[in-house]
Every structure is written in C-alpha cells, then in structure tokens.
Amino acid sequence: MKVSAVISAYNEEKKLGDCLESVKNIADEIIVINNSSTDNTVNIAKKYTDKIYTRENLPMLNTNKNFGFSKAKREWILNLDADERVTSELEEEIKNLSTKTSKNGYLVPRKNILFGKWIKHSIWWPDYQLRLFRKNKGKFAEKHVHEYIEVDGEVGKLQNPIKHLNYETVSQYIYKLEKIYTENEVENILKSGKKLYWYDALRMPASDFLKTYFMQQGYKDGLHGLVLSLLQAFYMEIVFAKVWERKGFEEQEITVDEISKEMGSIGREINYWILTSYLDAGTSKVRKFTTKIKRKLIKKTS
Fold first, then answer.
1. What's the farthest any 2 CA atoms get from each other in the chain?
2. Residue 129 has pLDDT above 60, yes or no
3. How far is CA 222 from the centre of its chain?
4. How far is residue 38 CA from its own chain's centroid?
C-alpha cells in the first residue's frame, strides 16, 4: 500500500517533529500544509520533506487539508494534525493491509491525551476518525470544523490508534473554543435558520453535560471526566450567548416560575442519570432498589 501522509500545521514547532517522525517509515510521500506559521514549523518540516505548501490560515481548517489531498501522488492518503502520532501498532496494521481491498477508507481510533491523561470514556474514546482513504475518494465537506472526511464507497475500521496530544492546558481549551470552534458552531446555527429561546440557555449546556458525563460515562474518568464535561457544557453556553449576541441581544421576558420549572426538569433528568449510573455499577440489591425508584421517577415525569 503506497501512502501519502498529509499534515496540516500552524505554529507547531514543538509537536510537528514527532508527528513527522511517526510517519516516516510508513509514508512514501510526506506533504506538509503550512498555515502561515510564524515560528520554526517550516524549518522542521524541511528535515522530512520538500513538499511544503504555505497557505492562508483560514478559520475553516479543512479547506487547506483538502488542498493537501489534491497534491498527494500515492494511491492512499493518511491525514494527520501536527499533535497526532501514528503508533507503532497502527503502523504495522497499515503495512499489513491488503492492496486489493474493496474498501475506500478506514476509521481509526484516536487515543486522546487531555490535561496529561488518556481519557477512556465519553466523546474521547474510541473517538473514531476517518484518516486513511484512497486518493480522489475522500475529502472534507468544509461545513464544520469537527466534520469527518466523507468517503465515496465502503469504509472499514482499524484496531490500533492514533495518539492525539490534545488539550494540555485549560487556556488552550478556552482559546480554541473562542477563536475556532464556537465561531463555526454559531455560523452553522445562523445559516440553518434555527431559532433559540431563553430556555436553550439552560437546556443546551445541561444536555451536553448529561450526555458526556452520564450517558457516555465520563464519570469513570474521575476529576478529568467531570471537568471536561463541565467545559463541554460551558462550550454550549458560549455558543448560545454568541448566537444571542448576533441576534442583537433581543429581550425575552422570563418569570421565576418558568425558571423554576425548567430547573426542575433538568434536576429530574440528572436524578434519572444518577440512578442509571448506580444501576450500571451497583450490586444486585442496589439494582433492585434503584430500579423501583427509577420507575417512580419516570412515572412522575411522563
């Protein structure tokens, strides 16, 4: 299998070298898209390849990645960011893939390291990403910064992961939230014509917290899981506030009774997920007791 590795980077002098080192034994061609870096990114890239293309650092990151795909010469493309590494196990798995496969792309699990810890639950694992695909059979739609590569044809799954050195500091999380991710989210909401109401200021963050912390078992990652779930809720609150800002901070009258009812509904949902979590982890006696309470709770809210 002949592979072109395409790596997009902006001011990644601290991480790019390890990324390129991790692909040098598997890629027949390395392409680096330099998003107008102002640090030593280009000089580091030159140690591994002469195929370096400098582009404007666009808010829609995937535009430059698609450009990189168009420059690839090999049959298969491996797409990475500078803070990602191909593990030795994944390298061997890719090397052993059949060149006669009917598949046009592969989903690869991603091992996210956040605040110094491998996060094994919630949205962070296995976090499958479509990263290996046939040239001219896949690309980004360029609609959302968190979108997947869309592949024309059959897609398979690989077993071994990419290692992702994700957020290292809270400041880094907040910076990307402010400058990249929430802005794109807001634009998509506005383009869709969706109208947000006052209660969405409570429902959007609450929904994301409940999903990541309870439904996707973020609580199993301890304090890391709690903080990351709360940051996800904060993310959605900022999205709501920015949409409200773009709408001219329109006024909406809210009564204390309405707030009370909304908070009560959220509280009941929290209790539901707490009981569900107990059921998942408890003994048979605890399961029997909490099932009884859960049924009463569902009956009250139905």
1. 67
2. yes
3. 20
4. 26
Mean pLDDT estimate for the chain: 93
CA dihedral 66, 95, 43, 8 (to 10 degrees): 20
- Structure tokens of 48? 């591994």
Q: 200-209 vs 222-246: helix axis angle to the nearest 10?
A: 150
Of 59, 60, 96, 77, residue with least CA distance to 5: 77
The residue whose two tokens read 């099932």 is: 291
Dist. CA 135–CA 77, nearest whole Å: 6
- Residue 281 has what pLDDT? 66
Q: Provide the residue count of the chain.
A: 302
Give the DSSP letter string of the chain.
Answer: --EEEEEEESS-TTTHHHHHHHHTTT-SEEEEEE-S-SSSHHHHHTTT-S-EEE----SSHHHHHHHHHHH--SSEEEEEETTEEE-HHHHHHHHTS-TT-S-SEEEE-EEEEETTEE--SGGGSS--EEEEEETTSEEE-SS-TTPPEEESS-EEE-SSPEEEE---SHHHHHHHIIIIIHHHHHHHHHHHTPPP-TTHHHHHHHHHHIIIIIIT-GGGGHHHHHHHHHHHHHHHHHHHHHHHHHTT-------HHHHHHHHHHHHHHHHHHHHHHHHHHS-HHHHHHHHHHHHHHHHHH-
CB contact at 8 A, 239 and 182: yes
- Name every residue whose Cβ is closer than 8 Å to that of residue 184 and which is 6 or more positions away in sequence: 59, 60, 144, 145, 146
Q: Tens digits of per-residue pLDDT, 239-290?
A: 999 999 999 999 999 999 999 999 999 999 999 888 888 777 665 545 565 5
Surface-to-core class of residue 276, CB atoms within 10 Å of its CB (0-12 exposed, 13-18 middle, 19+ buried)? middle
Residue 132, pLDDT > 90, answer yes
| pTM, 2 dp | 0.85
Cα 97 from chain centroid? 26
